Amino acid sequence: MNKNDLIYETCVQVLKEELLPAMGCTEPIAIAYAAAVARRTLGELPTSVSVTASGNIIKNVKSVFVPNTGGLRGIPAAAAAGIVSGDADLKLEVISTVTESDQNAIRDYLENTAIEVTLSDSPHIFDIDISVASASHSARVRIVTHHTNIVRIEKDDKVLFDLPVEDEAAADDGLCDRSVLSVAGILEFVENADLADIEAPVKRQIEYNTRIAEEGLSGNWGANIGKVLLAAYGNEVHNRAKAMAAAGSDARMNGCSMPVIIVSGSGNQGMTASLPVVEFAKELNVGYEKMIRVVALSDLITVHLKSGIGRLSAYCGAVSAGCGSGAGIAYLYGGDLKVIEHTIVNAIAINSGIVCDGAKASCAAKIASSVEAGILGYHMFKNGQEFRAGDGLVTKGVEATIRNIGTLAREGMRETDREILNIMVGC
């Protein structure tokens, strides 16, 4: 494989596009980002705010803490943080510079400003539309498809920027075409890529995500799933791999202001794809370069599985990332393409039933389960066991099985998504 091959260029671009820093759960941060852009466009502090969001956005923001707000949760808190103290130039780190004084101002703003939240009837799974107004001006900002993809900006009903998005297929999200990805192509890329083409984003991912996982284990965050795992099951690498990923989610879902490196728009997926693999790489003493390559492998497998599902779904994204980490662990133990493919298929068969009911403390436990499925998927094949075509969602070949999961999550779980939202809104 040479650098001019389409798969090589695509993999390099995917790592650049996907491995981005974000502080806090990315859905409330996307709201804060849109709100910060709206306030900047307005030119002054708005006296009224309206947030219209798709169901998956509402689901993922309802229960999660917004970092740097002193323990606030929900869409109004995210919007207020972006409006009062957000720096729109920082995108997914939009509220990373909020001070203690700013937090007081955010609370005051929430108490004195009407922030209306409405469920969108948009055809897009990912849709945030924020309108703000003062006594003399108005502004509007809309984000569609992914977290920083602004498609419309208005001021005083004058359109300043417009990117047509008539339907889901027409939404130009600015990301490269991932349809060329395959497990075989990803493995070939990882084994042959120049280290310089993958090192910077992956190295940063390892550093950022390790730091927040360590904070999750040392602090008191959420349900402390990472700590529980270590206390209950010991310090063997199999358990450390689960505990580190879970601990990062413990901290992130419960308001920790430390940034993470995301994958497929998700910090939880970014940690699930990287931290278990890092623990096994350290245990096996494979060296720095192989660690970089294997984390890139896990990231790209995760993106490949998620590409057919979409950014948001009723299908838990940690499942895909757990498959990615399982593939990476198989590779670290010398697994070839056949071993990696069967690891992925086995892991898919084990855990493709976990639903996404929004971002919150229990995500850490789902992450642990997904990493366990990835590890078990590898050990199954190592011991001569596998799930075969016809076993439920499994069909002949890893790529066909991945397509089945994409169809299930994207099409089959739409009604599930609606019912989850109905239940959550009624809580």
List keywords for this structure.
2-methylcitrate dehydratase PrpD; 60s Ribosomal Protein L30, Chain: A; 16 helices; 2 domains; six-stranded mixed β-sheet; 427 residues; alpha+beta
Topology:
Layout: H1 6-18, E1 21-23, H2 26-42, E2 48-53, H3 55-61, H4 75-85, H5 100-112, E3 114-119, E4 127-133, E5 138-144, E6 150-155, E7 158-162, H6 183-192, H7 195-218, H8 225-233, H9 237-253, E8 259-261, H10 267-284, H11 288-307, H12 317-332, H13 337-351, H14 363-382, H15 398-412, H16 414-426
Parallel strand pairs: 2-3
Antiparallel strand pairs: 1-8, 2-4, 4-5, 5-6, 6-7
Helix pairs in contact: 1-11, 2-4, 3-16, 4-5, 6-11, 7-9, 7-10, 7-11, 8-9, 9-10, 9-14, 10-11, 10-12, 10-14, 11-12, 12-13, 12-14, 13-14, 13-15
- Tell me the strand percentage band: 5-15%
Question: What is the CATH C level class of the largest domain, in words?
Answer: Mainly Alpha
Mean pLDDT: 94
Tell me the CATH architecture of the largest domain. Orthogonal Bundle
| Low-pLDDT runs | 168-172
Q: What is the number of strand segments?
A: 8
| Number of H/I helices | 16
Do you know the CATH topology of the largest domain?
2-methylcitrate dehydratase PrpD
Cα(first) to Cα(last) distance is 53 Å
Helix % is 55-70%
Strand order across the biggest sheet? 3-2-4-5-6-7
Count of the domains: 2
* Structure class: alpha+beta
